[in-house]
Structure formats: structure tokens, C-alpha cells
Write a structure and sequence with these properties.
Blueprint (H helix, E strand, L loop, with lengths): L1 H16 L45 H18 L28 E2 H5 L3 H6 L8 E3 L18 E7 L1 H9 L5 H8 L24 E10 L12 E8 L10 E17 L9 E7 L5 E6 L45 E3 L6 E3 L12 E3 L3 H13 L8 E9 L11 E2 L20 H5 L18 H7 L2
Parallel strand pairs: 2-5, 8-11
Antiparallel strand pairs: 1-3, 3-4, 4-6, 5-6, 6-7, 7-12, 9-10, 12-13
Helix pairs in contact: 2-7
């Protein structure tokens, strides 16, 4: 009780600091393209989010402050998923006219290609056609696995744009030795994106971008599978995770279920990056005891865990079965797991199918973000991207505080396909988690975990 009173007192103090002074008018939300005319969808990537007052202490999330960040995230999501040629250059036309065309992000550099060895490429990529995803990440960042209702594992891919890749290569950061030498004299600081400013005489510069994406195998979904962005892919399964005891290269079709977009910009939250995360709308239902993102004052966020909704939904969720009232929610069901050579891929050591994950969303989507989502989904009708939603955009809105460890707004942000089992944890925050990122040699990595993989890529199982 004492802890709750202490936190309530803090909330009162925070609310006293949170006026809407300097907030952006809500008319901003229909800015579908960063360049005029703004009323169209476009392939123009926003280089910066300048509708932000760096001297204002936002603290709690509120509509006028959050809207520009959410619009920035949607602009980036559309631009990154725009049809492109083989070099990554956006092609003319509407977003939905070429569903099988490569996407802009497919020209980004895969993490193994930066740090090596690129096992998926060497073992499985020889016969892969252009545009085929090469996948080797079978677990989430905490080592857990996610299994859809058809008994197939989710898999993951990580990318860096050329700004990030060039910075890593040019500064010798592809191995631990180079990272150690660099950080003896300099801090790692990835380049920031900026808009052109005629008055200041500065030109535009592309931001640093890192992507983490979650995918599910499209097996047994029927017509529902047509609502996903799908890509041909080859998955490398190492011998220790293969049911047969031999490495496998599995040719599958994957559907996008989650996407983290991290962009470092000149404005906005500056050195803390801007973090956006998207999901497919049919991933999982909202928990019966879901909390508002501004409800942050309890010592224990979800006593007893996140509960399944009482009333079953007709939605065919990918990671939730409404007809399984006894299924444990947000609990990893597979411990010593293996991949079979055919669907359902998720098996135990004896070869029996593993219980699917029963996932619910612990945090409600902020009402302002939900309103922005509706606008963009309406604009995106006619393309598969109308079936995706922004969960939230996280940014540095305040100085570190007992309630906001790193000054992140909103305080909590997780993607249920990428951090399934971290939703109820105090560390369930993109900015807060990545603030701990280090190089392979233990130096601060400017929020980019992939630098730590310089050694791990060579030694991981």
C-alpha cells in the first residue's frame, strides 16, 4: 500500500507537469505523405520527425504529442514496404499493384551479412531465387519460441539500412577487435536523419534504420492467408534443432506478423532513436484485464498474468485459439523443441506436435494511436497493408524518472510476436531494453544490439 501511495503521489506530480502546451494540432494525422501533396500514400521515407519540442517535458503520453510520432511511423512503414526494383529503389504506381514485387526493405543488409559467417546463405542460399528471404533466427531475443495455432514456429529476420551498414564497416565494427579499438577513442554514434533546411543551409540526410521482423509459416490458413504480406523464404534449421538430427533447408512461404522499425533522427528523441512496432491485426485478442498505457503506477502490473477474453471471437487469430479455455496464456509451451521436415513444424524430442502458444495482448493500444490506425487502414484499403496496425511509437519524451527509467513515452511497448513473454515485465520497453545494448567488447552500442553479435554469429549453435 505504501508503494502504491508513493507512486500515486508521483503521478500527481507528473500530471501537474503535463500540459498540452506546444502540442501539435490533431489535423496533422491525415498527412499520409511527408511531401506535398500530403493526401496521398507515397514511397517517400521520412528522414526526421521535426514536430517535437525538445525543451518540453512530455512525461505521460497524450494525443497532441503522440500523433506526429505515430504518423511518422506509418509514413516509414508504407515507404519501407513500397514495391521496389532489385536495387531497392521504389517503383512508380500504387502500393498494392505489385504484391509479389520486392519491398524497399529487402535491399537492406541482413545482420549475418555484416558480421558473418552467413550460414543461411552458404548452406541454403545457393539455389534461392531473387527476393527469397534467407532465415536463420528461430528464437526471440530472450531465447523463447512462438508457435501459431497450426503448430508452426514463428521465425525472425534482422536488417540494417546502408547508413547503418556503412557506419559499421567504415569504422571497423564488424568484429570485437575492431569494436574495442574504435571505442577506446570514440563513442559509437550512428548517423542521424535530418530534413533539408534552406535557412540553415543544410541538406537532407537519410536516418540510420534497423528492422526486426517476425514471420509465420503460411500453412493451413486458406483465404485468411491472403491478408498477409507474404514472401518466399528458405529457413535454415541447424542439426541440434532438427528432428532428424541433420541440418535442413526448408522452402516455405512466410507471412509478416510483426515489424520493429527503429530510426535515429536529428529531431524527435535524438540520440534515443524513434521506435515503432507494427503487427498484423489478427495476431491475438486483447486480454480481459488489459491495461491502458498510461496506467503505470502499480508495483505489480498484471497480478496473476494476462487473462484470455471471456467471450470468444470469430476472428481466426494466428496465435490464439478461442476454443481452448484451459490453455495457459502467454506461456512458452515448448522447452526442448525441434523442427520437423514438414508442417506442423513444431515438435518435441519424441516427434510429437507441441502445444501451440496461447497469446493475448496485455496492453491496450492508446486511443490516439488507434484513431490514427483507422485513418491509415482506410487509406490502405485494397492492399494487404490495411491488415496491419501500429501498436505504438516510443520516443524520448522526458528526462529519466522513477516511473520512466529512460524517459520513454509511452512507458511500455512490446510486440506480441517479437517479445511475447515480456509484456508483463518492467523491461517491456523498446527504448529501455536497447539502452542496455553493448558491443561484443562491452562498450555502449548506441542502442544497437546487432553489434554484440560480432562474436556470437561465429560461435552460436
Amino acid at each position: 500500500m505504501v508503494g502504491r501511495c508513493r507512486h500515486l503521489c508521483m503521478i500527481v506530480a507528473v500530471l501537474a507537469m503535463c500540459s498540452t502546451a506546444g502540442a501539435v494540432e490533431r489535423g496533422f494525422v491525415d498527412k499520409f505523405c511527408i511531401e506535398p501533396p500530403h493526401g496521398r500514400l507515397c514511397a517517400v521515407l521520412p528522414f526526421d520527425q521535426a514536430d517535437f519540442s525538445s525543451d518540453f517535458n512530455y512525461m505521460l503520453i497524450e494525443k497532441g504529442a503522440q500523433d506526429p510520432f505515430d504518423v511518422f511511423s506509418w509514413q516509414a512503414f508504407v515507404a519501407l514496404n513500397w514495391p521496389a526494383d532489385q536495387t531497392g529503389r521504389p517503383v512508380d504506381g500504387r502500393l498494392g499493384v505489385a504484391p509479389k514485387a520486392p519491398r524497399v526493405w529487402q535491399s537492406f543488409i541482413r545482420r549475418p551479412a555484416l558480421f558473418g559467417p552467413d550460414t543461411v546463405l552458404s548452406e541454403c542460399g545457393g539455389d534461392a531465387q531473387a527476393g527469397t528471404l534467407l532465415v536463420g533466427d528461430l528464437v526471440q531475443s530472450d531465447g523463447s519460441v512462438l508457435i501459431d495455432r497450426h503448430g508452426n514456429f514463428a521465425v525472425y529476420t534482422t536488417y540494417a539500412n546502408t547508413v547503418v551498414a556503412d557506419y559499421i564497416r567504415d569504422n571497423g565494427l564488424t568484429d570485437a577487435e575492431g569494436q574495442t579499438a574504435f571505442t577506446k577513442t570514440e563513442d559509437i554514434a550512428f548517423p542521424r536523419g535530418r530534413l533539408s533546411d534552406e535557412k540553415a543551409g543544410t541538406t537532407a540526410a537519410a536516418p540510420s534504420i534497423t528492422l526486426k521482423m517476425a514471420w509465420r509459416v503460411m500453412s493451413g490458413d486458406g483465404a485468411a492467408g491472403q491478408s498477409y504480406l507474404t514472401r518466399p523464404a528458405v529457413i535454415h534449421v541447424p542439426e541440434e534443432r532438427s528432428r532428424s538430427g541433420k541440418p535442413m533447408c526448408l522452402n516455405v512461404t512466410l507471412g509478416l506478423v510483426g515489424m520493429h522499425v527503429a530510426m535515429r533522427t536529428e529531431s524527435g528523441n535524438g540520440s534515443e532513436w524513434i521506435w515503432a512496432t507494427f503487427e498484423h491485426v489478427d495476431n491475438a485478442p486483447v486480454a480481459a484485464n488489459a491495461r491502458n498505457v498510461n496506467s503505470i503506477y502499480d508495483d505489480e502490473l498484471f497480478p496473476g498474468g494476462c487473462q484470455a477474453p471471456v467471450r470468444a471471437s470469430e476472428t481466426q487469430y494466428a496465435f490464439f485459439d478461442p476454443n481452448c479455455p484451459d490453455c495457459r496464456t502467454n506461456t512458452m509451451t515448448a522447452i526442448d523443441w525441434r523442427w520437423a521436415s514438414a508442417p506442423p513444424f513444431a515438435r518435441d524430442v519424441s516427434g510429437e506436435p507441441v502445444e501451440h502458444s496461447q497469446v493475448v495482448r496485455c496492453w491496450d493500444i492508446f486511443e490516439s494511436t488507434a484513431a490514427v490506425n483507422r485513418l491509415w487502414q482506410e487509406k490502405l484499403k485494397g492492399s494487404v497493408f490495411a491488415n496491419y496496425m501500429l501498436i505504438s511509437t516510443q520516443w524520448r519524451g522526458t528526462d529519466p524518472h522513477p516511473l520512466f527509467e529512460h524517459g520513454e513515452v509511452p512507458r511500455y511497448l512490446t510486440n506480441i510476436t517479437l517479445e511475447t513473454y515480456q509484456q508483463t515485465a518492467k523491461v517491456g520497453t523498446c527504448l529501455g531494453c536497447h539502452a542496455t545494448a553493448e558491443t561484443a567488447s562491452g562498450a555502449p552500442a548506441d542502442f544497437v544490439f546487432m553489434l554484440q553479435r560480432a562474436d556470437q554469429e561465429r560461435t552460436r549453435p
